[in-house]
Design a protein that fits this description.
The protein is α/β, with parallel strands linked by helices and 350 residues long. It has two domains: 172 residues, Periplasmic binding protein-like II (D-Maltodextrin-Binding Protein, domain 2); 154 residues, Periplasmic binding protein-like II (D-Maltodextrin-Binding Protein, domain 2, 3-Layer(aba) Sandwich), CATH 3.40.190. Strands 1, 2, 3, 4, 5, 6, 7, 8 and 9 form a nine-stranded mixed beta sheet that branches. The radius of gyration is 20 Å and the shape is globular. The N terminus is likely disordered.
């Protein structure tokens, strides 16, 4: 897919009657209606940035009170909707699941309120608009490989010249299979439909050298602790790690780009207000503030955040590496996520 204008848990509640309690304080307030919204994201400093950049200006404009919940839990979303006891109002959700759940677990957006023309057409579907872009970066430990650094995607799979442990993200749809296929010689414009068997065959020789992270915090911890020699890591966690002194640099070859969406759970009691909040996040000043705080890429290509030196060093545009970007296809993932995940899980334990 070419974008011309770029710039879980096991803890989910299984008993329907306990859904309200399962959500904790944040979930309970989401059913109150009126001038309040429950916002669900990944938690931590990242969600704090969403509060400051998006929620605080919206509250200042109309008095809306926010309760923040998280992390996003897709099984919990399904359980709440099926039980008709929805306590969330707005979700920061990966683009693939947004495609997959549209209409069944997510509300159709009102595009008379949300201006879809503000987003690249390829990024919008009936149930979600992009909140921000992020990259899956190929990192290497400069203390180990500084004298002969890797230069291409295939080096990630080269245990002879680049021995050691690798770590990869917890979400399959953010680019691991795409990266394997690109490293195996598949042209970027021929990636989809993904040849899953070929990707797994490429991964086979290094499987015992891969740590399959269960959270993004685990990746950050591994980088800061210098526990891995190579990594596939997303933009924000990479920048946080480097700021903490993690000795890693980027191989600007085959950088997979994805985006998260803002979506509304099916049955939200506050969906009209949620539509207005989503529309407000497209404002350029709010995009710029969030990109600076969270180290992501703005949706609008003409938004220029005031990045710090670390952010600039790891930004493909500021560093002149935009040609390395390869865009994911969330629509394909939405149609194939369950099947591919089952195959990948069987491969991991096989």
């Amino acid at each position: 897919m070419a974008l011309k204008n770029l710039a879980v848990t096991a803890a989910s509640c299984l008993v329907i009657v306990s859904l309200a309690a399962c959500g904790g304080q944040g979930a309970a307030s989401g059913t109150s209606g009126g001038n309040s919204l429950t916002f669900v994201s990944s938690g931590g400093a990242f969600q704090d940035a969403q509060k400051k950049a998006w929620q605080e200006p919206f509250t200042a404009s109309n008095g809306t009170k926010f309760t923040n919940d998280g992390p996003v839990d897709e099984p919990k979303l399904k359980a709440m909707v099926d039980a008709k006891r929805v306590t969330w109002d707005v979700m920061d959700l990966s683009a693939g699941p947004t495609e997959q759940y549209c209409g069944k677990y997510l509300e159709n957006l009102d595009f008379s309120v949300i201006d879809k023309s503000l987003y690249p057409a390829e990024t919008v579907n009936d149930c979600g608009v992009p909140a921000y872009y992020y990259s899956q970066m190929f990192l290497y430990n400069t203390e180990k490989f500084g004298s002969k650094p890797p230069t291409k995607a295939s080096d990630f799979f080269d245990l002879v010249n680049y021995p050691g442990q690798r770590i990869v993200p917890p979400e399959l749809s953010v680019g691991l299979l795409e990266f394997a296929l690109l490293a195996d010689g598949v042209p970027a414009d021929k990636l989809y439909p993904l040849d899953v068997d070929r990707a797994l065959k490429k991964l086979d020789p290094i499987k015992s050298h891969i740590t399959f992270a269960t959270t993004y915090g685990q990746i950050q911890q591994a980088l800061v602790g210098k526990q891995v020699d190579m990594a596939l890591s997303l933009t924000a966690r990479t920048i946080l790690s480097v700021r903490e002194g993690a000795p890693y640099d980027v191989v600007w070859d085959k950088t997979i780009v994805n985006w998260d969406t803002l979506s509304i759970p099916k049955g939200s009691a506050n969906k009209d207000l949620a539509m207005k909040f989503i529309a407000s996040t497209a404002a350029k000043d709010r995009q710029a503030e969030f990109a600076k705080l969270a180290s992501n890429i703005p949706v609008s290509s003409d938004v220029k955040p005031d990045y710090d030196d670390v952010q600039k060093r790891l930004d493909p545009f500021a560093t002149g590496h935009k040609d390395s970007l390869v865009y994911a296809n969330p629509k394909w993932w939405g149609e194939n996520l369950d099947t591919v995940t089952a195959k990948f899980t069987a491969w991991k334990v096989g």
